[in-house]
């Protein structure tokens, strides 16, 4: 671990410490670390518009208890990391989505997932981490696939949860789920935005496993920590302008575990299966009843699967 980094206690999670890491490419990432320095490191990469707190504390703590050190961070354009001010032309999202579904190339986003994977590679370097296990969720899983394919020296094993490789003609997200994620809140005050978040959590989450009070508290905490809707749109454009990762999956040599929820309607399970099929020797696990989220009910099973995968 780079000893020059200055850590202080996380204001959110008692067992995590936070710091800022300057990547040297104009981007500064906000990072939290937990666990013993001598333990093997799992780098957690979160999804579209999701701050590092979307990795539940209980999930991080369970991995730490399994004997790992955990690093979670805000991707560029979200949370407390650098924001990308873009002055370019406005892109037609619907047109891009149509081309994307057919596997056609899109251009024009301020950055794409390759740039975000470069951020992760630079973060590993700047923090002085070696032989990292990488676990990516949703868009973070897409970033993790690129990272593992392009940096075999930095990533020793790969874990992916509810993600996709965006190969052409996969079943699209259910419209209700997709538009909840990229839709606008009814009002822009704190309550309007928290209600919107609550609606999103309920629409994409695991049916029957969502605690409304906890979800509301989380939504408020996330809003008060950072609210930057422009970043969410720019990350969505980054996905659309990256396209299929199928050719990269074929380059991945690291042992890979792909986990998906049977009730995921944002990225149906066939997306995870396509990833596992494309990566040589990858294992696929379907978790019955889980949606596009990590509710407490599934955490012991989920963290156990990944802890075992990274140890074996």
UniProtKB/TrEMBL annotation:
One GO molecular function term of this record is: triacylglycerol lipase activity
**Where would I find the AB hydrolase-1 domain in this sequence?**
40-294
**Where on the tree of life does the source sit, at the highest rank?**
Bacteria
Name residues in a coiled coil.
none
- Which GO terms of type biological process are on file? glycerolipid catabolic process
Instruction: Tell me which PANTHER family the record gives.
Output: AB HYDROLASE-1 DOMAIN-CONTAINING PROTEIN (PTHR43433:SF5), HYDROLASE, ALPHA/BETA FOLD FAMILY PROTEIN (PTHR43433)
Name the record gives this protein? AB hydrolase-1 domain-containing protein
